[in-house]
Amino acid sequence: MAITGDQRLLKRINRMALVRLVRSQPGLSRAELSTATGLTKSTVSLLVQELIDDGWLCEDTVLVTGAIGRRPTPLRLDGRRLVMIGAELSVGSVCVVSMSLNGEVLEREECTFPLQTSAEVVLAQMAGLIATQVGRQSDARRELLGIGVGVPGAVMETSGVLAVAPNLGWRDVPVRAMLLAALTRLGVVDLPLFVQNDGDVAALGEVEFASGPVGDPLLYICLGVGVGSGVVVGGRLLLGGRGFAGEVGHMQMQADGPRCSCGRSGCAEVFIGLQAMANTLGCSIAELETRVAAGDAAALSVLTAGGRHLGVLMHNLWAMLDPAVIVLGGPACRLGKPLLGIAQETFEALARAANLETPPVTESRFGDLSVAAGAAALVLHKLLQPI
């Protein structure tokens, strides 16, 4: 039995190695895959055919070059048949998407909930949206690979327990177990379910759905009601000893600063978080966005201060992690240059003072869907990395 299990695992590893190669270099032929992996041509041919039959790969059109002899058939990811579902739990809302292997958003569902709503009720709402997506993808004759969930707080990955989410007021909530139970009641069973921090999954989304090479390490900074981050190094998440790495919104930036939702004072979140900036003006987040768009002087002043703090945070994380690229994502990015432009200027000024060049800073390719899309990428990540 042990030998059989080892053989199955080896086959999974080889299959996913081929998928990763084709994803990173679309158009590779079977012969080129054999050379790149060291696997025999017959083994590659066998595995590629299985991957085509299973919906992972497809053959591309052979280009006519005029050369003599049989031309190799290029391969690429098949974005038509396999689907991952990604769900984002944020403060006051849930968003669920279905994603193709190529990173295309196929379906999107959202709902809102009052902040005092219990975890059981919120996760039941999420399960309902997921079940709707499962039904739609089944009707479209697509095969589901699994479900990923991004949550705004520290997650114990192996158990799927949300240890603490200050902005939700949740502690030690068994998100994975509760969600599985709710899905089972709705008839959704036998699908892998993974739960991880929102910044972590958003970072994975930038890597797993990239159309070309991405910087390594990649630092993603999640900007919303809370502030978080995710770091991908060598194709894997940097999670820390307990899985709590990335909670940068609770890095102290001012010892005697305003009190944070986590109980400490002067955290990054109280200067950069959307709700904190709106509270400074005594308005809602929606009103903050409206006032910024209208050029309101007070709102722009708050964003300028927030942008400077964000620039300092970017500098501090850069000094600690030395990322090759920094990606900014989340709802706060809608505020645009009044926040992000000031942050970039502050970041570059600090770097110039040390006579250093900053890494590229970009915005997430998925915009407001960066966490939900990243949660779907979490499923793909788990499948592409069998060990």
TrEMBL record:
Can you say what this protein is called? ROK family transcriptional regulator
Family in the record: Belongs to the ROK (NagC/XylR) family.
**Superkingdom classification of source:** Bacteria
Gene3D superfamilies, A to Z: 3.30.420.40, Winged helix-like DNA-binding domain superfamily/Winged helix DNA-binding domain (1.10.10.10)
